[in-house]
DNA sequence: CAACCGTGGAT
DNA sequence: TATCCAAGGTT
């Protein structure tokens, strides 16, 4: 059983000496802390840093972000992935603007009700910005706690996360924000997934799995399922005005991002002409093949070049394409026009 | 609740 | 190349 007071003391002492100097640790602004937590969702620190700096430079206050055009914000998020994160955050800061006079709610209940604020981000922001004693349980914390207690439960189950959250809140000290960050920092730098640095660990003496030499057996997690493989034809349709056919994606995957016409490989040109209301040139061999891997899908894309004299509101000047938010998958397609 | 939702880096 | 992982949330 964990000696709570001694554990927290050891961990916090280590953290205060060893914490990394990250951009979002140079501010007490709840908005900026919130932004960083949203960016850090399932995304590595090194990836987030340049995006965070760009956003803070361009949208220094909550009102700057709230007043911004959604498509421009999406464009600035381009390449970071999980695009609903920024769509939800944009919506949430607008909510804060008109409901809370542009002040990030200090009442946990109010903050947790905002779009895109779940158990982790809610706990992180409320503890770091306002010192509320709420846990912030991410993948790092799940791994650290599983190893400390030789916890055999599956960390991919929501019930486990909920239970660990309660456990952390039973040991969380008054310095709640630092404690939450210290647990994550420990997981990110010492108690790492593959080669943990147990000999440098400040809480080694509290660790059950270290005592029994079973650290690498934790955390328990069910293996991920196989990705669905999908085969598509992507069409770069050009007219005689240096324009290409492009439109906003409405489906859940990559919602709000622009795309080129994308069809299952067995879809006939006639069907496509009918759906797009265009008269198209004869189909020739694909000019390229591309593969793109998502969390749960793999796209194998054949890239085709087509021409038309038909008119449509969906034609965009090729030189202006880069002004529109586009997924990496579609960027891989578009690069073959250059 | 299990499935969905991006991307890049490490091994 | 295949798999896992990374400061998770929504449905």
From TrEMBL:
- Known cofactor(s): [4Fe-4S] cluster
Keywords attached to this Swiss-Prot or TrEMBL record, sorted alphabetically, are: 4Fe-4S, DNA damage, DNA repair, Glycosidase, Hydrolase, Iron, Iron-sulfur, Metal-binding
One molecular function GO term is: purine-specific mismatch base pair DNA N-glycosylase activity
Q: Which reaction does it catalyse?
A: Hydrolyzes free adenine bases from 7,8-dihydro-8-oxoguanine:adenine mismatched double-stranded DNA, leaving an apurinic site
The family database entries (CDD domains) matched by this protein are listed as: ENDO3c, NUDIX_DNA_Glycosylase_C-MutY
Residue ranges occupied by any HhH-GPD domain in the UniProt entry = 39-189
Q: Which domain of life is it from?
A: Bacteria
Record-listed E.C. numbers: 3.2.2.31
Q: Which family does it belong to?
A: Belongs to the Nth/MutY family.
Q: What is the protein name for this chain?
A: Adenine DNA glycosylase
Which gene specifies this protein's sequence? Answer: yfhQ
């Amino acid at each position: 059983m964990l000696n709570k007071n001694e554990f927290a003391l050891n961990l916090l002492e280590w953290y205060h000496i060893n914490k990394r100097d990250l951009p979002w640790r140079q501010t007490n602004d709840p908005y900026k802390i919130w932004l960083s937590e949203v960016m850090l969702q399932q995304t590595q620190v090194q990836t987030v840093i340049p995006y965070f700096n760009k956003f803070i430079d361009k949208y220094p206050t909550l009102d700057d972000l709230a007043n911004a055009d959604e498509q421009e914000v999406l464009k600035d998020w381009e390449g970071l992935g999980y695009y609903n994160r920024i769509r939800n955050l944009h919506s949430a800061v607008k909510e804060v603007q008109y409901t809370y006079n542009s002040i990030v709610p200090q009442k946990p209940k109010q903050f947790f009700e905002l779009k895109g604020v779940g158990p982790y981000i809610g706990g992180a922001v409320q503890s770091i910005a306002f010192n509320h004693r709420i846990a912030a349980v991410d993948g790092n914390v799940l791994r650290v706690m599983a190893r400390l207690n030789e916890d055999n439960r599956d960390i991919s189950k929501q019930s486990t996360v909920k239970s660990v959250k309660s456990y952390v809140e039973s040991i969380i000290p008054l310095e709640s924000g630092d404690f939450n960050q210290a647990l994550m920092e420990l997981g990110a730098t010492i108690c790492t997934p593959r080669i943990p640095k147990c000999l440098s660990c400040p809480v080694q003496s509290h660790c059950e799995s270290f005592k029994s030499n079973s650290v690498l057996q934790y955390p328990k997690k069910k293996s991920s399922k196989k990705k669905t493989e999908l085969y598509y034809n992507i069409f770069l349709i050009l007219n005689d005005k240096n324009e290409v056919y492009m439109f906003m994606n409405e489906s859940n995957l990559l919602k709000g991002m622009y795309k080129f016409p994308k069809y299952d490989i067995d879809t006939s040109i006639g069907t496509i002409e009918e759906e797009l209301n265009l008269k198209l040139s004869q189909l020739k061999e694909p000019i390229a093949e591309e593969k793109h891997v998502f969390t749960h899908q793999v796209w194998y894309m054949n890239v085709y070049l087509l021409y038309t004299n038909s008119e449509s509101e969906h034609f965009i000047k090729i030189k202006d394409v880069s002004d529109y938010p586009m997924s990496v998958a579609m960027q891989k397609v578009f690069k073959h026009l250059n």
